[in-house]
Amino acid sequence: MPNRTVFFISDGTGITAETFGNAILAQFEMKARHVRLPFTDTVDKAHQVVRQVNHTAEVEGIRPIVFTTLVNMEVLKVIQDDCKGMLLDMFGTFVHPLENELGLKSNHRIGRFSDASKSQEYHDRIEAINFSLAHDDGQSNRDLASAEVILVGVSRSGKTPTSLYLAMQYGLKAANYPLIPEDFDRQQLPPALVPYRKKIFGLTIQPERLSKIRNERRPGSRYASLENCQMEVSEAEAMMRRAGIRWLSTTTKSIEEISTTILQEIRPDRLVY
Q: Do residues 77 and 138 share a domain?
C-alpha cells in the first residue's frame, strides 16, 4: 500500500497539474499512487471525480492529496465543497494574486493546447519532431544544415530520448548520430558531421551503466560486455576531446537535466521567451 494516493484533476490534459504536483512531491520521501483525471470539464464529471476521491479516502483510511488546475469555477466549487481530499488548487493559489498584482483578469483558458492547430509554435514543434525522427540514429544525412543540435555518443547513451524531448518540449530540430567502431578506427568524427562541428554535443555514460542497459537488449553479447563498453566509452570521450566537442555524462541525469544543459550550451535563447 502506498503512503498516499495523489489525484491530479484538470479540465484540460492534466499535464500541468501532474508536472507541478510531482515537482512538489519530489521534496518528500514517500510512495504515492498517482491518478490523473483529465478533462473534468462539467459539473457531472466533477461529481464523478468527487465520488472517486472520497471512495479512496474511505478505503485507505487517509485523505488523498488532490492537485487541481481547474479553470471552470462551477466545476471547482463541486470539488471544493464535497471532496474529502487535501485540496491544492494551483490556479487559485497563483492566478488570483497575479490578477491583483497585474491589474488584469485571467482569460481562464482551459489548457495550454487550446487552438493548437492555429499556433505557429505548435507547427514548429511538429516539424521538429518529424525532423528528429527522420534523423534518429544517423539514419539520414539529408538537411543536417537545418539541425539546431546534433547529438553524438555510443549506442544507448541517451541520444534518441534526448533528441525527441528537445523536439517535443522546445521545438528544437535535433539529429543524433551513433559513434561506432569504424569511427574509432579512423579516430575521426563521421565525415557527414564534420561541417557541422559547432552544432555537435556529445553524450557519454559510465561503462558499467552502459553494459547493464545493453544487456537488457542483447544479454550476454559482446556488444553488451563490460570490456567492450569500457573500450567504446573511452574511445568516444577521447574523440570528443580531440574534436573540441562539448559533452556530458548521462549516467545520473534525467532527460530534463540533459536537455537543459544542452540548451544552455547550444541555444541559450531557447531558455528566454
A: no
In tens digits, what is the pLDDT along the chain, a chain of 273 residues?
568 999 999 998 888 899 899 999 989 988 899 999 999 999 999 999 999 999 999 999 999 999 999 989 999 999 999 999 999 998 888 888 888 999 988 876 666 555 555 678 888 889 999 999 999 999 888 899 999 999 999 999 999 999 999 999 889 999 999 999 999 999 899 999 999 999 999 999 999 999 999 999 999 999 999 999 999 999 999 999 999 999 999 999 999 999 999 998 887 776 665
Residues 190 and 80 in one domain: no
What DSSP assignment string belongs to 113-141? TTTGGG-HHHHHHHHHHHHHHHTGGG---
167 and 39 within one domain: no
Q: Are residues 140 and 264 in the same domain?
A: yes
Quote the domain boundaries for residue 262.
117-271
**Domain check: are 10 and 87 in the same one?**
yes
- Beta strands 246-249 and 32-37, pairing class: unpaired
46 occurs within a structural domain:
yes
